[in-house]
Amino acid sequence: MNLTDITPAIALTPLDGRYHSATAPLVEYLSEPALNRERMRVEVEWMILLANGFDGNGNKPVVDGVQPFSEEEIAFLRAIPENFGAEGIARHAAHEAVTHHDVKAVEYYIDDQIDLAAGELGADTKLNDRIKTLVHFACTSEDINNLSIARCVKNAMEKVWTPAFKAIVDHLAGKAEEYRDMPLLSLTHGQPATPTTLGKELAVYVYRLNRQLKHIESQEYLGKINGATGTFGAHLAACPDVDWIAVSREFVTNRMGLTWNPLTTQIESHDWQAELYSTVSHANRIMHNLCVDVWMYISRGVFAQVPVKGATGSSTMPHKVNPIRFENAEANFEISCSLLDTLSATLVESRWQRDLTDSTTQRNIGSALGYSLLALHNLLGGLGSIHPNAHVIEHELDTNWEVLGEPIQTAMRACELRGLPGMDKPYEKVKELMRGHEIGKEDVERFIDQQSFDPETAARLKALTPATYTGVASKLVDFAR
């Protein structure tokens, strides 16, 4: 049997198959039907503006010869996209099969709905064959597309991706606070180094991710409605007495909720998209770094994983609890970044006034954000299944007293600067004691006693242990927010 013969159709990508439950919320905003629904919203709102004019001008139509719509007629038009479901998707597809043009199919779909208005609103409704001329009036397809895509992406970011991203940041912030005082052996270049606290290390990620969150939350979403080459040429030819620049600004800003772009070719230049996708990609990479760090902490034993009842870690080694959530997140962040980087690099280019490369490219926005959303889902699940292993953490600190070489040699430098004798070449003296040797508390104290420290400095250094040599790490957690 051919798998292609099975209905409903089998998903080609894992986003719509294996991982559908994690990525389904994006379908509401970034799927093909979601885009077509948004196109319908743009089209009907443009009709309403043209027929009813600006607020406060006495409902004077923008286009002469059009009578303002009643509240019932406006409600009927706005219900067209709201009621766009399985039957509507099929009807739109039937139109597109003939037109081979998705936006023209939207226009014809709206015409079909206007045909039903008389039956619902009465024979004298202004929603009749004549008013169909107002559908897509003076518009090029890109007028509708750029606004629809901007609104789809804006909604997807604000209602799905950003809340999932914030959940990661909030979780990390909570753990940073909880473990702010828990000492942890650092590894620089993979070697034991100045201790820190687990909370401070998590707070580093909170701070990094919050910076990206601020960029995302302040992101502009631009839109335009100005005709085939951005000149309002057809608008003026049809209605020369209308201030089309003002109409365009009103529609994009107040009706569509976007930032008005006054200067474009046929397309809105997509710079805002490049900015957004670059920021999301950057955030992805920070979280990828987090996944790798946590994976290595698990491998080192610093984090222990909570086994999932009934889950299999390895098909042959029953003892294993694999950090698969972090590995899955890593991989999906990488795929997302590859798509987002491609979108950022290619969408900002267009041949003269228009080519269609961006049309195909933008159909992958859902996949780009979908893989990121899937990674966020995996990462949050992974973070929720780990906890610090206090025994391992304490053992690492207690077996690496050599990390106190740094504070001792630095204190010797300070003493030499104050004129204390015998404090020359402090780095070399400490290196001789500590480098390549296993030492303990007694060795450190003996070395301190052999130097000519003043009593206060000697006592301060003797009081240090790898677990207490964390500087102001716990206080630094406060800067994460």
UniProtKB/TrEMBL annotation:
One Gene Ontology molecular-function label: N6-(1,2-dicarboxyethyl)AMP AMP-lyase (fumarate-forming) activity
InterPro entries xref list: Fumarase/histidase_N (IPR024083), Fumarate_lyase_CS (IPR020557), Fumarate_lyase_fam (IPR000362), Fumarate_lyase_N (IPR022761), L-Aspartase-like (IPR008948), PurB_bact (IPR047136), PurB_C (IPR013539)
Single GO biological process annotation from the record: IMP biosynthetic process
Domain (Adenylosuccinate lyase PurB C-terminal): residue spans on this chain: 350-470
Coiled-coil annotated residue ranges, if any: none
Location of the Fumarate lyase N-terminal domain: 17-329
Protein's pathway: Purine metabolism; AMP biosynthesis via de novo pathway; AMP from IMP: step 2/2; Purine metabolism; IMP biosynthesis via de novo pathway; 5-amino-1-(5-phospho-D-ribosyl)imidazole-4-carboxamide from 5-amino-1-(5-phospho-D-ribosyl)imidazole-4-carboxylate: step 2/2
A Pfam family assignment: Lyase_1
EC number: 4.3.2.2
Alphabetical UniProt keywords: Lyase, Purine biosynthesis
CDD domains (alphabetical): PurB
Role according to the record: Catalyzes two reactions in de novo purine nucleotide biosynthesis. Catalyzes the breakdown of 5-aminoimidazole- (N-succinylocarboxamide) ribotide (SAICAR or 2-[5-amino-1-(5-phospho-beta-D-ribosyl)imidazole-4-carboxamido]succinate) to 5-aminoimidazole-4-carboxamide ribotide (AICAR or 5-amino-1-(5-phospho-beta-D-ribosyl)imidazole-4-carboxamide) and fumarate, and of adenylosuccinate (ADS or N(6)-(1,2-dicarboxyethyl)-AMP) to adenosine monophosphate (AMP) and fumarate.
Protein name: Adenylosuccinate lyase
Organism per entry: Bifidobacterium avesanii
Taxonomic lineage of the native organism: Bacteria, Bacillati, Actinomycetota, Actinomycetes, Bifidobacteriales
